[in-house]
Design goal:
The chain has 15 helices and 31 strands. The protein is an alpha/beta fold. It has two domains: 208 residues, Metal-dependent hydrolases (TIM Barrel, Alpha-Beta Barrel), CATH 3.20.20; 193 residues, no CATH class. The strands form six sheets. Strands 1, 2, 3, 4, 5, 14, 15, 16 and 17 form a nine-stranded mixed beta sheet that branches. β19 and β20 form a beta hairpin. It is elongated and about 90 Å long.
């Protein structure tokens, strides 16, 4: 502290001085020219005339706080944390608040510990919130059931910022004791309770907020966002691979107070990581949001919400996490500074992370022996119409319709002509033998099948296909690889991304993973798929907390009423 004080007073040289910078001040909401003195990774002073052991003249260039992602599931990138950091740090993200919800559903506390250990020694601060809904509901089988006593083992850790998205909002509103015990745990420790409440409104929403939930990232339209802002909630504006809500919410950001708004990415594939929070700032500004307010949303607002007192601004005593920008239009950092050190230049990481090795995890794909007949759907006498999941492009929400599958010898099969395809969710944690069977519309497959062990939230194996033989083949191949994503046709593999880490993540470099994802997408198109992100869309068809119709290993789910429903009408 004494050294920083001497540097701040100008009595001692700083480690680094950024000279003649256009400082983006997110406190006063102004831009002015100044020097920034850095000492021991901390900003010692913001004033003219500082001297440093190293000085960088930034005449004409802007310096802003680096960016923070307020809610992300790193596992959804299918990358280990080190590979994730390689992708996002060069674009200006130096802090993320990760919810290890995905791996927790597979491996519980062991999964959280794995993510924590794998996130150390990175040029990226990885804070976490503890998963609140493992499993999300009792309508599915997860690998683990985490209760408040389990979460209490980690809640006091300084890297834990609160309780993650409380998806079971009916449990909160209806005073479920187990659900409220997790909320109370966070509140007792004065830590945040994140929300997840699509379309919750009126008095029920008031009850949800009164319980202590303070944010939501599921708003897809202005009226919903405005109602939640009025009740004091923080609005997490999401741009994920499969759900892009920024543009629909721009009217809110232009008209209302943005100090309770922040940017989050939630779930993103590798190809959408290089342009991370920076691209959200750029898009918001292009659509009419004031640049300083957009930067606030990407830095100070998020830091204040999570009580990260030394992050999110350029001021004495704050961490020297900074971005050097050529303009306030493109938001592509020329230099990324993390803890006072240059971490990236001109879009490339300057720190070598190749020597980092994650801990070892056990295998996680454990299914009961699968027979071809396990995929057959018996049709009740006199029934011809099946409740069918209708996919909505770029949305997590689905619709329900009544469709006619092909019925032969008393069994229902895919109706390829009308795009009514069979879907199966196979329990893969405890070898229970549970298999949920149904139909989905919107993928457009003309042959073959696609399958994945990434299926929110319990991450059981999910398969969509035009015929049982290819569906069976795809499932068996994923067991052999201990997880992954696959496209097959005529019982031959067209593309296969292996995900041996919890069935969620690859142990390969980001570039290689991205290439294999592209191969999967191309192979899916080859067999007729008409959805741009088929595996992301498929992964959310088992998310039983998002309306309207979903499917888990326990069957077809009426997500509006949180209950299992009959397949045939």
């Amino acid at each position: 502290m004494e050294k920083i004080i001497r540097v701040a007073k100008g009595e001692e040289k700083a480690d680094l001085v950024l000279k003649n910078a256009k400082v983006v001040n997110v406190f006063s909401e102004e831009i002015y020219e100044s020097d920034i003195a850095v000492c021991d990774g901390i900003i010692a002073g913001v004033a003219k005339g500082y001297k440093g052991k190293e000085e960088i003249d930034l005449t004409g260039k802007y310096v802003s706080p680096s960016f923070i992602d307020g809610h992300v599931h790193i596992e959804s990138s299918m990358l280990l944390p080190a590979e994730f950091a390689k992708m996002v740090v060069p674009s200006g993200t130096t802090t993320v608040v990760a919810d290890p919800h995905e791996i927790s559903n597979v491996m519980g506390l062991q999964g959280i510990s794995f993510m924590r250990e794998a996130s150390k020694n990175l040029p990226l601060d990885v804070y976490m919130t503890l998963p609140s809904c493992v499993p999300a509901t009792d309508l599915e089988t997860s690998g683990v059931d985490l209760n408040s006593y389990d979460l209490a083992l980690l809640i006091d850790a300084p890297w834990v910022l609160g309780i993650a998205e409380m998806m079971n909002f009916p449990g909160v509103v209806n005073c479920d004791a187990g659900v409220l015990s997790k909320v109370k745990l966070g509140l007792e420790k004065i830590k945040r309770i994140d929300g997840h409440a699509p379309h919750l409104s009126g008095k029920a929403l008031n009850a949800y907020v009164a319980a202590g939930v303070r944010s939501d990232h599921e708003c897809t339209e202005p009226d919903e966002a405005i109602e939640k802002l009025r009740l004091g909630m923080y609005l997490m504006v999401r741009e994920a691979t499969g759900a892009r809500d920024l543009e629909p919410l721009i009217p809110v950001l232009k008209q209302y107070n943005t100090r309770k708004c922040m940017f989050v990415t939630d779930d993103r594939h590798p190809k959408h990581l290089k342009k991370h929070i920076s691209n959200m700032v750029k898009k918001a500004v292009k659509l009419g949001v004031d640049p300083i307010k957009a930067i606030q949303m990407a830095s100070l607002n998020t830091a204040e919400y999570f009580n990260l007192q030394k992050l999110g601004a350029i001021a004495p005593g704050y961490k020297a996490d900074l971005l050097v920008l050529n303009d306030l239009e493109n938001f592509e950092p020329e230099i990324v500074i993390k803890d006072g050190q240059i971490a990236a230049k001109n879009g490339k990481l300057t720190v070598n992370l190749d020597s980092l090795k994650p801990p070892v995890l056990r295998g996680s794909v454990n299914i009961k022996y699968l027979y071809h007949d396990d995929l057959k759907i018996k049709v009740p006498d006199g029934k011809t119409l099946a409740k069918t999941i209708n996919v909505i492009p770029k949305q997590l929400i689905t619709k329900c319709s009544l469709e006619k599958p092909v019925i032969k010898d008393g069994y229902a099969d895919s109706n390829i002509k009308d795009d009514v395809l069979k879907i199966a969710v196979i329990e893969r944690h405890k070898a229970t033998g549970n298999i949920g069977l149904g139909f989905v519309k919107g993928f457009g497959l003309k042959s073959g099948a696609i399958a994945s062990t990434v299926a929110h939230d319990s991450h059981n194996m999910i398969v969509i296909g035009t015929n049982d033989e290819d569906m069976y083949y795809a499932a068996v191949e994923l067991v052999k690889s201990q997880g992954g994503k696959i496209v097959v046709e005529n019982q031959k593999t067209l593309a296969h991304l292996k995900l041996p880490i919890a069935g969620l993540m690859s142990d390969r470099p980001a570039q290689e993973v991205q290439e294999q994802i592209e191969q999967l997408d191309e192979a899916a198109k080859k067999i007729g798929c008409k959805i741009d992100e088929p595996f992301m869309s498929m992964a959310f068809l088992s998310l039983s907390v998002i309306p309207e119709l979903k499917i888990t290993d326990k069957g077809l789910i009426d997500a509006n009423n949180f209950e299992i429903t009959n397949l045939f009408e």
